[in-house]
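Appendix B. One record, verbatim.
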Amino acid sequence: MDLDDLPRARFAFPGPLRDRLVAAILAGAKTSTTGLLLGYEREGEPLPRVGQRSVVVDSAERPVAVIEVTEVRVLRLADVDLAHVVDEGEGDTSVAGWRAGHEEFWHGPEVRAEFGDPDFTVDDDTLVVAERFRLVRTLA
């Protein structure tokens, strides 16, 4: 497996949140993630596909792990289930708590700047990409 041929998986923006998410992946606690479908559409990126491998990078853009996609679902934000929430490995024990944290992120200045919309918000009908993955190997 040539790491240079694999796409990079960047969780959140560089900084403390990315560092926590990467640590959770390396510890095996994080096996799912949620992104906005709009983000894929705006970037012209294809959705992840089952079997796809990628290199997880830390805040310094250093490769730290290889993950493999095991499931991809596109669903309404209101339809995200507790199993997915728990498997995100961020310590959430309720969908409501998970959603509040994700809304804070999605309504934050970095996402709004990325989308070029200072008033960007999500609601129950916002489509998200719920992805499951497995840790293939660590690189550190």
